[in-house]
Amino acid sequence: MKIFQMTIVVFLKLLPFGLLQDTSPQMNILQEAVRDDGNVKKEFDFIVIGSGPSGAVLANRLTEVPEWTVLLIEAGDETNIVADPPFVAGALQFTDYNWGYKAEQEDGFCRGCFEKRMLYPHGKALGGTSIINYMIQVRGNPLDYDRWAAMGNPGWSYKEVLPYFIKSEDAHIEKADAGYHGKGGYLSVSDVPARTESSHAYVRAAQEAGYPYVDYNGKSQIGVSYVQGTLRNGRRDSAETAFLRPVRGRKNLTILTKSRVVQILIRPETKEAYGIKYVRNKRYHEAIASKEVIVCAGGIPVLRDLPVGQKMYDHATFPALMFQLNESIVIDEEKSLTDLNTYIQFLSGRGIFTSLGGVESLTYIKTNASDDPDPSYPDIELIYVGGSLNTDRGLIFRRIFNVPQETYDKIWKPFEDKYLYQIFPMLVHPRSYGYIRLKSKDPFHWPKFYANFYSDPENHDVKTFIAAIREVRRINSSPSLQRYGATMVQTLIPGCEDHVFDSDEYWECAIRTLTGTFYHQVSTCKMGPEEDPEAVVDAKLRVHGVKNLRVVDTSVIPLPPTAHTAGPSYMIGEKASDLIKQQWAPTPFNLIPKTE
Fold first, then answer.
1. Domain span including residue 415
2. 245 belongs to a structural domain
3. 208-242 per-position pLDDT tens digit
4. Residues marked as binding?
5. Which amino acids are annotated as binding site for FAD, given as ranges?
6. What are 338-383's pLDDT values in tens digits?
7. Residue at 570 is within a domain
8. Which of 50, 82, 197, 505 has the greatest number of beta carbons closer than 10 A?
9. CA distance 579 to 164
10. From the UniProt record, which GO molecular function terms apply (predicted)?
């Protein structure tokens, strides 16, 4: 036990530091390029703020035009290869690669969380949140995009965006639907090499319960599947490794890290963006854009009376739904981290370190609480983990969901030497929404996030969660899991002891007491026509009423998608690149053709 804890602690201490710096030529090119502020150009054709998936794609695609110069500016620093093992995704939230945001206290949820607050991780590194996320690649449901288009956003139907998903991909999926995946793209999407026997049992059990095996990024989404991840040879394939590292030698691309944008420069008389002010090495600098400033960091200053941040959707989860098994077929982290073979296997892209933080399977379901008329539109995603919050004996996983030590000790600690798997139900189409407020006019003050979970007047979100829990129990009763004696852990959630276990009242208390998020915030800069009072950008992602300013990231998504938002973020960057090329390219440029 002590050896295991020491291994975890030493590993975490290594994460923020460059003790294992990548010494590849591409990395050295970047380090040389940003070493001296005096050598940085001041004028560019395009300035891209933020290096997450959308920003990285833009920097790559816009510099395909040799006549254009592009500045990509990122507040965070370089990562190092310690961030490569997918299994450590959760631990990365507790490093300098995370901004460290927290949601504000509210009465309706997270009542049993530490400080009654959820953590709101956002990546602060070259590659943005793709550096610290769980690498789960989900595009979403075709209806998501068809409904965006129907809201007055031409060009965003599923048939029109699918080619951009395919364009990005270099897919290595064993059970992939023909015609839905790409080869040779920058972003590697693959099956996860590490799979526990418990995940196989779960996938079989879901099929026994009536869910077909599907390629959820293919023809249909409702069903069960092993997870698809943005991995290359078992390692994290982030926005930086996929889209930036291969093109860092381009002379028309300048990348600045550790540079925080504090102002977008706009001419008040013409409402035209023309540059940025940023801080680097404790000094203010300005950069000028002759064509456009493109924000890929989730927000813009309020120049017009635009509803920036007034509506924010997010995907909630419940982190305390676990089942005990009678055999050791789940992740044994203690054994793995203290076994030299684990590290040797990872060198060849195999073993437990290739696991997406323990996530092994996804199931998309439509519960009996859904009132959507389309039978192909899920309302819940079930995330299967071949372990539980006690897999690391409470060192990291409980902290991801801000579970207090005393709550962990009551619910999870008694099962530390047992075999548990866990299901995280994710509400994909919440009716509740929150908002963001600025703490002050100081750009160095963090914003205030109000998630406002479970606040819809009809309590539909809570009812959907309860229906999902009932469906999870039904899947768990299937023969393939009962072979291993799968039984729900029935320890009462602290604060819910007055309710009868498994009653609707108990589950409502439970999900309002322990609440989590997968940081899939969208809609804060909603895409829509100018007559839409909630819209901030138009269908070409141009800010209403401001010239030469676009927002290109998941904040433009008008409704919460049936997806983890990294996948749509890459697509948005690809499509925006074509929209920009169509407007500004020196030679005629056609948008990518539609699929049939």
1. 106-119+193-226+314-517
2. no
3. 999 999 999 999 999 999 999 999 999 999 999 99
4. 129, 261
5. 129, 261
6. 899 999 999 999 999 999 999 999 999 999 999 999 999 999 999 9
7. no
8. 50
9. 12
10. flavin adenine dinucleotide binding; oxidoreductase activity, acting on CH-OH group of donors
